[in-house]
Design goal:
The protein is of the alpha/beta class. The protein has one domain: Ribonuclease E inhibitor RraA/RraA-like (Glucose Oxidase, domain 1, 3-Layer(bba) Sandwich), CATH 3.50.30. About 15% of the residues lie in helices and about 35% in strands. The strands form two sheets. Strands 1, 2, 3, 4, 5, 6, 7, 8, 11 and 12 form a ten-stranded mixed sheet that branches. The longest helix has 9 residues, at about 75-85. The two termini are about 15 Å apart.
Length: about 160
């Protein structure tokens, strides 16, 4: 059951960080949430592939690509991998490609923009580290909630709560 980001903001105003509205929807699922797994990369998606090739268990992969607009860090093949392995969504501080196909996959994808250029394949980067972009901090194990209204982050799983309207 989806919990809306607006309801979470109303019910838990001191428990959520609200991301700046810089991320666009690209996946076939607009509303998604889950525990955070992170990778920090620059123009290289090897660690993204590695993460998505493992069971997602409803989690969300947060990819800090340092806001680079030079290449895509996720395309239809990795999007399909995310769906096949049970990831709820992928949030990319960078670009995606194959957007027509991504929009038909049963996984949430938010990113800055689209770019047709592929990334490097050197395997450089770090995983399960704290990352910060769009004005919020993403900690491994914290929770991200995303929908058409935006994206919020909480240190733990939240419910809508009785004060939401």
């Amino acid at each position: 059951m989806h919990v809306s980001t607006a309801d979470l903001c109303d019910a838990h105003p001191h428990d959520v960080q609200v991301a700046e509205p810089v991320l666009r929807d690209f996946g076939g699922v607009r509303a998604f949430s889950g525990a955070i797994v992170t990778v920090h990369v620059h123009d290289d998606n090897v660690l993204v592939r590695h993460a998505l090739n493992h069971p997602g268990e409803g989690r969300v992969l947060v990819v800090d690509g340092e806001g680079s607009l030079r290449c895509a860090l996720l395309g239809d093949q990795l999007g399909q991998m995310a769906a096949d392995h049970g990831w709820s969504g992928v949030v990319v501080n960078g670009c995606v490609r194959d957007v027509a196909r991504l929009s038909r996959l049963p996984v949430g994808v938010k990113a800055l923009a689209a770019c047709p250029n592929k990334s490097a394949k050197e395997g450089k980067g770090r995983h399960n580290v704290s990352v910060r972009f769009a004005g919020v901090s993403f900690e491994p194990g914290a929770w991200v909630y995303a929908d058409e209204d935006g994206l919020v982050v909480a240190s733990k799983r939240l419910e809508r709560g009785p004060s939401a309207a």
